[in-house]
Structures are given as structure tokens and as C-alpha cells.
Task: structure prediction
Amino acid sequence: MSKFSRFRITRRDLLIVGAVASAALGLPKLVAGRAGGKTEAAASSGGEAGVSTAEVVFNVNGQSRSLKLDTRVTLLDALREHLHLTGSKKGCDHGQCGACTVMVNGRRINACLSLAVMHEGDEITTIEGLGTPEKLDPMQAAFIEHDGYQCGYCTPGQICSAKATLEEIRAGIPSHVSGDLTAPMPVSEEEIRERMSGNICRCGAYANILDAVRDVAKETT
Result:
């Protein structure tokens, strides 16, 4: 017989020991929290120690805006929750669907992946800054004409991305499918498809979106 045979631990004993150990580990934090006098309610109201805030000033749709924000707030949340510009959508919140696309200094970005405090002094354009119901932006009008949307959820990001796409092509910025980096960049189906591939349309209106972008490209070249 093994000399360790008398030390038998049942499953019940193991569970009890584990529960006691977990409670013991959490006890110091509980005591420290009570000693500090901070309740969970106080922390949720903004009194939590260690939260860093900063004031950021940027230009949004032609208007200077100043916000004091938690430095962890994304540009998307600053636009939606603080400035109430809800046209930019929160889709995947991981930079994969493109629903949050806005233009910063003329370049398109995924607003969910960028912190608001990084954009001090920047020029930010959201879908609300492109046109009005009375005077639509040419890209907005083209999307309507070609039925480039169905549910409409991804449409603001699609339109912002499409406008920036044409500017990228005109500026000669290459994409993965660009063949000749020295020749004028063509506004081809391949270029548009490649550059717009980061904007997902769950309704599958890709063919109509492509037609809308091509029409605007013809009118502005």
C-alpha cells in the first residue's frame, strides 16, 4: 500500500477547498474597497480613480466642436454618443464591416478603431456633412437612383467610403490591383471593387453600389 493512500481527497472536499481559497483571495479587495469609501455607484458616475480625461477640439462637418472625454472613447462613440451624429453606424465594432466609415482630412477611416483624442484639430466629415434632403451630394443621389441600398444600415459608411475612393484614384494612390504605378489611375470596376471591399453590405447590393460609384466618377471626370 502506498504511503500516500491515507491522504484521500474526495471531489466534495476539493470543491470546498477551492471555494474557500477563492473567497480568501477576494477578501483583501473587498476590505480595501470599503476602506476607501468608494461604492460601485460612485465609480459608475465618473468618480472612479485612475480614469483619464482630456479635452479635444476638432472640426466636424464644418463646425468646431470641443469635448471633454475619457481618453478611451473612440471617435465613433464621440460622434454618436456625444455629438449625436448617429448616421455613422456601429456594426462589428472591430473595423471589419466599414459601417462606421467617416472621412478625416479627406481620408476615410474606421471610426471605431480610432480614439477621439487622436484627432485634435482634424477635419472630420460624416454622412450628415455631405448633403441635405433638399440638396443631396452627387454620391447620395446616385445611390438613390441605382438603389444602392436596401436596409440602409451600411449606406452612410458606403457613401463616405465611395467618395474617398474616387479621391484616392484621382490622387494616384495605388491599390492591390493597380497594374501600372506610373500611369494615370483608371476608374475601373476592379479598382472600385478592391477599394470598397472593406465596406460590407449584408443585403448584397454590391452591383448597384458599383453602378452608383461609376456614374459619379463619369460625371466628375
User: Anything to note?
Assistant: The radius of gyration is 26 Å.
